[in-house]
Amino acid sequence: MNTLTPDRLASADYKTIFDRQRQHAPVMALTTAKERIDRLKRIQNWIASHEDSIKKALYDDFRKPASEAVLTELYGLNGEINYTIKHLAQWMKPQRVPTPINLIGMRSQVRYEPKGNVLVIAPWNYPFILCLKPLMSAIAAGNVVMVKPSELTPNTTRIIQQLVADLFPPEEVAVFAGDASVATALLELPFNHIFFTGSPAVGKIVMAAAAKHLTSVTLELGGKSPCIVDETADIQQAAEQLAWGKGVNNGQTCIAPDYLLIHESVKPQFVQAFQGALQRMYNPNGQGIQASDSYCRMVNRRHFERVRDLVNDAVRQGATVSVGGQMAESENFIEPTLLEHVTDDMRVMQDEIFGPVLPLQTYTDKDEAIRRIRQREKPLALYIHSRNRQNIQYFMERTTAGDTVINDVMLQFNDPEMPFGGVNNSGIGKSNGFFSFQEYSNMRGTMERQFGTMKMLYPPYTNRIAGLLKFLVKYL
Ligand code: NAD
């Protein structure tokens, strides 16, 4: 039992647990695939037997509907654990790689060994999966782990603490609840790897702290992810997907389509279809979206005010609300909202929105849409809706993004075969499936001599060696 995991510990205690984990890391490194899989199955079973408490915690934190909790937190996590269980033994095996002819006589391998002490820092928006998925992958790769969940979702944090306390001794996994000050204290420790999910601003703080110990980092960040809808797109389908993308989790999703670039000719059709899709999803009985039990809330007052201010600032500068716009401060409710006549100097086009607001800009020329995307930081996700192959290719070749989904949104996170993550400002490193395993492992190149040829090139450097080198450079 993990009795040493209190809500808060003094930094001296972080160090005590860190040292215990460091001593234990070599033991974890020697665990077999079967032993690691047993741990993953224990996590899976614990989640299955506590599903109701997890759903309740997520509801208490920000009124997340039970089905949405299953869809966006439990389902994907379970899939990732199953995938890891299935492939782990194979991943852990040393991989033979070809040895080039000039090194004939050597045998080459890549061995995956655990990095050791790992720190996972998680955000609040998917507070369960974004803690458990990196934790699970770090364990699968044979590491010891300290976890810092977000302070904004305290009910889910308590569940995570309970899970870890029930399943792991503190020298293997320890949870530290608390705010930025806890993360700051943890970041002083010389971890071997840090897996951080959160904002680009805090990502920079994490990376600077990691630099002091030359600790490697995976940074899963955010930013403004564009969505292009061209003149050939299935507008009904695109509008429905965007309504879902902005509605699910109340738009508080790192890979939510942040803003829309739509071909001018299809805008009126889109606006109508977007409105219709929202009504079908969140207002089937005509009592208003606020009454929907399929729609969650902004996580707290600060985030409610932040998004409200983005809308107000845009409207003050000439934007118009063409769909939605209702808000209720008493329950941090913001209706899915479509903004038109939006310009780049409005804050809604500068900050990551992270709420159910979709600003729309039109374009007539593909290069104009591309220019708008390229003037910003490289996005975490870029969505393209089009039925024209050449257009899709044109957009793909002239932009970059962590991941792209064509003719759908937000599905990339749940495919363990896809490298999930950003580029520069939207993230560093990739996760999911084997990519996570790699992130948490040191890839140790290992060469073993079978017979040797290198000796032929040892000094003294005679004319014969010079001739041999000439041959090697030319032909090998
Ligand atoms: P955040 O950066 O404010 O906080 C994330 C974590 O960092 C929390 O645990 C928090 O306590 C901690 N933290 C805050 N300030 C800190 C500091 N000064 N030093 C050290 N740690 C600190 O992010 P958030 O508001 O929880 O989440 C929203 C952001 O996360 C958005 O930008 C979103 O796009 C991004 N996000 C990215 C992904 C992804 O997979 N790429 C997933 C979810 C969220």
Please characterize this protein's 3D structure.
There is one protein chain. The chain has 476 residues and is α/β, with parallel strands linked by helices. The protein is built from 15 helices and 18 strands. The chain has helices at residues 11-29, 33-49, 51-62, 66-92, 129-140, 154-167, 180-186, 200-213, 235-247, 267-282, 301-316, 366-374, 389-397, 433-439, 463-475; strands spanning 95-97, 106-114, 117-121, 144-148, 173-175, 193-197, 216-220, 226-229, 259-263, 320-323, 327-328, 333-334, 337-340, 357-363, 381-385, 403-406, 427-428, 441-449. The chain has a 7-stranded mixed sheet with strand order 10-13-14-9-8-15-16, sandwiched between helices. A 6-stranded mixed sheet has the order 5-4-3-6-7-17, sandwiched between helices. The N and C termini lie far apart (59 Å). The relative contact order is 0.13. Residues 1-8 have low confidence and may be disordered. The site of nicotinamide-adenine-dinucleotide (NAD) has 27 residues, from α7 and α8.
What layout of secondary structure does this protein have?
Layout: H1 11-29, H2 33-49, H3 51-62, H4 66-92, E1 95-97, E2 106-114, E3 117-121, H5 129-140, E4 144-148, H6 154-167, E5 173-175, H7 180-186, E6 193-197, H8 200-213, E7 216-220, E8 226-229, H9 235-247, E9 259-263, H10 267-282, H11 301-316, E10 320-323, E11 327-328, E12 333-334, E13 337-340, E14 357-363, H12 366-374, E15 381-385, H13 389-397, E16 403-406, E17 427-428, H14 433-439, E18 441-449, H15 463-475
Parallel strand pairs: 3-4, 3-6, 4-5, 6-7, 8-9, 8-15, 9-14, 13-14, 15-16
Antiparallel strand pairs: 1-2, 2-18, 7-17, 10-13, 11-12
Helix pairs in contact: 2-4, 3-4, 3-6, 4-5, 9-10
The protein binds nicotinamide-adenine-dinucleotide (NAD).
Nicotinamide-adenine-dinucleotide binds next to helix 7 and helix 8.
